[in-house]
Sequence to fold (897 residues):
Amino acid sequence: MPITIEMPKLSDTMTEGTLLRWIKKVGDSVEVGDVIAEVETDKATMEMEAFDEGTLAEVYVEEGQKVEVGQKLAILTGEGEETPKPQNGSKKVSADKKEKETAAEPPEKKASVKEPVHSAAEVTPESPKQSAPSAETSQSRPKASPLARKVAAELGVELRQVSGSGPGGRIVRSDVLSVAKTEPKTPERPKTAPKPEALQTDQRIPLSGMRRTIANRLLEAKTTIPHFYLQAEIDAQPLISLRQQINSAAEATGLPKVTVNDFILKATAVAAARVPQANAAFADDAIIQYADVQLACAVAIDEGLVTPVIREAQRKSLSQISAEIKNLAARARSKKLKPEEYQGGTITVSNLGGYGVEQFFAIINPPQSVIISVGAIVPKPVVNTEGQIVAGQRIVLGLSCDHRVVDGAIGAQLLAELKRLLETPALMLI
Amino acid sequence: MSLPNYYFMKYDLIVVGGGPAGYVGAIRAAQLGKKVACVEKERAGGTCLNWGCIPTKSLLRNAELFQLMQKRSAEFGFRFEKLSYDWPKIISRSRSVADKLAGGVEFLFKKNKIDYLRGEATIPAAGKIICKDRNGKEETVEGDHILLATGAVSREMPGLTVNGKTVVNSHDAMIIDPQPKKLIVIGAGAIGVEFAYFFNAFGTEVTLVEMLPNVLPVEDAEISVALEKSLSKQGIKIFTNSKVGSAKVEKGQVRVSLEGKQAQELEADCVLIAIGVSPVVPAGVPIALDKKGFISVDERYQTNVPGIFAAGDVIGPPWLAHVASWEAIQTVEGIFTKGFRPQRVKEFPGCTYCQPQVASIGLTERAAKEQGLKFKLGKFPFSANGKALAAGEPEGFIKLLIAEPHGEILGAHIVGPEATELIAELGLAMKLEATYEEIEATIHAHPTLSETVHEAVGAAFGEAIHI
Fold:
């Protein structure tokens, strides 16, 4: 009896998912636990596993299509079975319903429910279990506890890289946690989108969940927050020299290198702690000044952008901040962030320097009250202290402020503090 | 006459003690192809089988049946001309069950070619034991490894020396004849509670005394309170938060005065001491002990003397047969199986076989809160379970602690019918790190008591059907 595969509910809030990619193709044999497809939910990209075995006989959904939870995706057939021809009318509906009801039951039960005319003994010898064609795939599937699977999915740990300490070598939660701890995963970027081809016709691209959120929140921010903008140009030469020093030492000792952005994040954390009036939020009848700097950093990803948060950043060293943002950004790109990792920021840094942008002003990310916009390092003629024109390295920092919380002078203080730290970067290391 | 094996050979393993740790460890070593001897001073099976778990379950079955027939015959539609019982027969049934099982263990020794030596062991040095039999004859046996599984005996109470008649321990209590008219049980752990239930069911006037605030102090407080209510209703007088101040035995009567909130003078013809156990450490080479006198072992269950290992009650709590057996297997696999890393016990079920039964595994609500864990509670009463109602056992409930956010089971607590059987599903769930979703997705047969497990999971998420 063919088995219907439906769009599973992969998270509590999931109502629909996008079928990103069929991993199994029509005609492939499928074992229980094999990954059949990749599904994008409102939160993450997840692997969809098979709960039954058989041959993938037909798929009803194309890659990239958005599908409601419970909608039919594909049909699995046992050996020698044929794909049911789509029938019209009520008959098909009732057949589907029956399959749906039995889909959650263990296989033994199913045999007796679905084949009421045969006795169990007659059915077993022919059951697909006996003639499973690809034992190889089932062996390569790691044995792991349900809890370990959940935690691994959340932390982005690949189960195949974990060795199990549970009964019979089963992977248990502590195994996943110890791997996650020892080597913070930096999963490679998901396959890059195919090269854009010349578009033949106009396209209507339905909004992804993320795009809708960006649209709503930034419209609200730009229309309800009284923004004002400050700007300062910074001498980046000391920063460049210090970074070179640190990185050549790091290279010699095999330590990870730091980026200019790491310095800017560190400087923001220190500056925000020194000017707490800017590390604050407008709360209708009060202003909330935060005790800790929850430092958000905008990360561009294929679908839009996210702002993962470095917690209590004012307490963290340059190298801690550097390691943390590297890890967060990598997981943001593979959509493996947990909500608590991108919520609750108190101040944001957005850096478009890597794209050659010289200066800009970002929109505030509510409920925060400032956002720092970082441009590229640009060689420019500058007048030095002797009044001579020399070649300099400059960065322009933009600061967007919510005037309900931060007045011009406070914004200026924050910017001055940033300038001081970045132009004398050794101050940040003490 | 042929001479015994130990005249000619050195064993791979000598196990001292034939209880749940010793005999299980010996059999596992034999299964691994090792040459094994087991020395036991009384009878194979140890306390559990001869003087603990098994014979008391026989007594409690009698109690449960008698209580049902005597107290609830009208409800069930039974009529008796004159319902009575045969006390010596109740005790002898219990003894014959123990005897049969001990014989079973001795058979398993034979089957696994384990040399079984009767006698008391002393250990002059690592690799060597001296076994002294009942007639005082000594034999020296040598082996590469020694596993001490010597267990524990009832802890003595200062000021109340056990005499087997008016002051008894659990060993005496299970063969006491005649039946005491008035009994004081000191200690409301599993042993104290089970004996209190047993004697009360047969009409002995029972007073149960506990120093801590609740009966079964290791259990979840909510469960203990429910049990306490039930036992009181059955007629047992219970004094918690009560310490025994002084005690006297005079003319076949015991007088016990209690200190605490309710100072109290108690009098009875018998007092049962059930205040825990003390380890039995064999004489010979000095073995390092912990503060309470139990043998200290490292992560491979090895004592401070290389080659001498220990498992079971003798290495400390929990004093449970199933934990002892598990520890012995960990020890033996650790000794003989390359690459095996023995583990120490983490989660284990605990069971008390009064009626209603109590069973639990994992963290109590209080412990989970103290650890700062986030969890949801799922509770379901047996009064909403069809099978429990049909069996006339609607008392009690099940309580699950389901962790947030992932939904693994932190603890399970049951008071009610067959609680001790129901706990197995939750033990498996915890061992396999199942989350509530796997339990929820499992079809539980109807009508069974096990449906309460399913419903309790549902209840945690507001999805229980029958409540």
User: Anything to note?
Assistant: The domain at 356-460 of chain B is CATH 3.30.390.30 (Enolase-like; domain 1). The CA atoms of residues 182 and 205 of chain B lie 5 Å apart. The mean pLDDT of chain B is 95.
